[in-house]
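As a warm-up, study this chain.
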Amino acid sequence: MLRLAAAAPLLLVATAAHADDLQQRLVAGARATDTSAYAFRETITVTGNGPGMDKAGKTYVTAYDPRRPLAERWRLVGVDGRAPTAKELEQSRKNKRESVPDYTDLAKWLGTPATRVDGANGAVTYRYPRLPAGTIKLGKHDASADTAAEVQVAGANGASPHVGQIRFTLTKGFRMMLVASVKSMATTMRFRRADGGQVVPADVQSTIAGSMMGKSGDIRTTVNYADWQKVR
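Now compare it with the structure written out below.
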């Protein structure tokens, strides 16, 4: 729930049956975004207190470079502050990552029905009660219909507004593989403009809580994106 200080102006809330003008501009901006020529670094830190989780956490640094052959574009360059071992490099290659974090993907659902909240100083937030199929997948489970999203718009009154932050929240738990269940999920994604004006991911914070084989726990993941550079 959005909370403002007592002295802040009242919020104006309206339910949109169809995408309003600002939503349409956000969708158009997302579709026009092209970061395929950018190299960057991705740092992932995973911690948790569930079965098989390392409470101390693990950190992986991966470099992406679109100039390399497709199978070599993702390169593991660091694990817990050191160079990766041969075994870790081999496992990384087996993962065969192909998808690149892309602001363009938001265009698939930003124009769907949402509640618009206009706040102080021109701030605009959209609330989506559910998302289209295929938007949010946890493992093989499509959780889109049971995931709500809150989108904060950056530069809503400017010439080039873009999504500044998204918070996804699971509204209904589910079971996976008979022996595991997911009870809750909260993920916050932030975006920024890179050199050249393209909108790129800045970071992701995610917490998933549930149980496996009757033991409860959670997994916390932080992803940071840096060193965005246009290379071709």
